[in-house]
C-alpha cells in the first residue's frame, strides 16, 4: 500500500510522470486499474482506490489517499480524534457515542494502540529529530497516551517548519502525519517496526517536497 494525495487528478499526473516509487524495490509505479468503491465514515464521497504496478518488480499496490488508514472503515481524522479523546481520559463508550463509532470498535482500536504506545512515541520523536532543526523533545507527561500526542505534534511541527505548512488538505495536520509516516498502518499489526530506520514518509505522502 502507498499513501498518496486526495486529489485523483494529481495522483494520475504523478503516475504518468513516473513520480511514485514502489515501496518494495524503489522502482517506478504505473497505473493498474482500480479497487472496489467503498464508503468510509467521515468522508463525504465514496472512495475508489487507484491501483498501481511496479515496472521493475511487477508488484501491485493500492494507492490510498492520506485521509485513510489501511483496512479501516472510518476516516483517519476520526480515528485520530478517538486517540485524542482517550488521551483526554475518556472511556471507550463515551468516545463511541461522541464520534458515532460502535463502542466495540473503539475498544478494539484502543487495545491495539495501547500495546505499542512507547514504540509509537519513539517513532514520531525520531521522525521529528530526523526532519526538523533544533528539535526540543518534550518531557514525559505521566500519561503514555498524551506522550504519543506530543510526539506526533512534534513531528508535525518539524515537518511544517522544514517543508512549509501547506499539505494535501491545505495544512499539514497531525492525522496526515500519522497516516503518511505509518504508510497507513498506524493500527495495523507489526507497525512500527523496531530497530529499523525511521522512513521519511511524510516528505512523499504529504506532498511537501
Task: Give structural attributes.
209 residues; alpha+beta; 2 domains; four-stranded mixed sheet; 8 helices
Structural class by secondary-structure content: alpha+beta
Approximate strand percentage: 5-15%
- The secondary-structure element order is EHEEEHHHHHHH
Taking strands numbered 1, 2, ... along the chain, how are they ordered across the largest sheet? Answer: 1-4-3-2
Low-confidence spans: 201-209
Shape: globular
Quick one: how many beta strands? 4
The overall pLDDT, averaged over residues, is: 89
Measured as a percent range, the helix fraction is: 40-55%
Cα radius of gyration in angstroms? 17 Å
For the record, give the distance between the C-alpha atoms at the N and C termini, rounded to a whole number. Answer: 20 Å
Instruction: Please count the helical segments.
Output: 8
Q: How many structural domains does the protein architecture include?
A: 2
The largest sheet, given as strand count, sense and whether it forms a barrel, is: 4 strands, mixed
Brief synopsis:
The chain has 209 residues and is an alpha+beta fold. The protein has eight helices and four strands, in the order βαβββααααααα.
Describe the protein.
The chain is an alpha+beta fold. It folds into two domains: 2-65, no CATH class; 76-205, no CATH class. Helix content is 43%, strand content 10%. The chain contains eight helices and four strands. The chain has a four-stranded mixed sheet with strand order 1-4-3-2, covered by helices on one side. Helix 2 (76-87) packs antiparallel against helix 3 (92-99), helix 2 crosses helix 6 and helix 3 crosses helix 4 (103-114).
Amino acid at each position: 500500500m502507498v499513501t498518496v494525495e486526495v486529489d485523483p487528478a494529481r495522483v494520475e499526473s504523478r503516475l504518468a510522470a513516473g513520480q511514485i516509487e514502489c515501496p518494495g524495490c524503489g522502482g517506478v509505479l504505473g497505473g493498474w486499474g482500480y479497487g472496489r468503491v467503498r464508503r468510509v465514515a467521515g468522508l463525504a464521497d465514496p472512495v475508489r482506490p487507484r491501483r498501481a504496478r511496479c515496472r521493475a518488480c511487477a508488484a501491485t499496490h493500492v494507492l490510498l489517499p492520506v485521509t485513510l488508514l489501511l483496512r479501516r472503515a472510518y476516516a483517519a481524522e476520526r480515528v485520530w480524534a478517538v486517540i485524542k479523546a482517550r488521551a483526554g481520559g475518556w472511556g471507550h463508550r463515551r468516545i463511541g457515542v461522541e464520534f458515532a463509532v460502535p463502542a466495540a470498535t473503539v475498544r478494539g482500536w484502543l487495545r491495539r494502540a495501547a500495546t505499542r504506545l512507547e514504540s509509537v512515541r519513539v517513532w514520531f520523536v525520531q521522525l521529528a529529530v530526523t526532519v526538523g532543526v533544533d528539535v526540543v523533545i518534550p518531557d514525559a507527561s505521566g500519561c503514555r497516551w498524551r506522550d504519543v500526542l506530543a510526539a506526533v505534534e512534534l513531528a508535525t511541527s518539524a515537518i511544517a517548519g522544514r517543508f512549509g505548512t501547506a499539505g494535501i488538505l491545505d495544512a499539514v495536520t497531525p492525522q496526515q502525519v500519522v497516516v503518511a509516516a505509518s504508510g497507513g498502518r498506524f493500527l495495523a499489526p507489526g507497525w512500527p517496526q523496531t530497530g529499523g530506520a525511521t522512513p521519511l514518509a511524510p516528505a512523499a505522502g504529504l506532498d511537501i517536497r
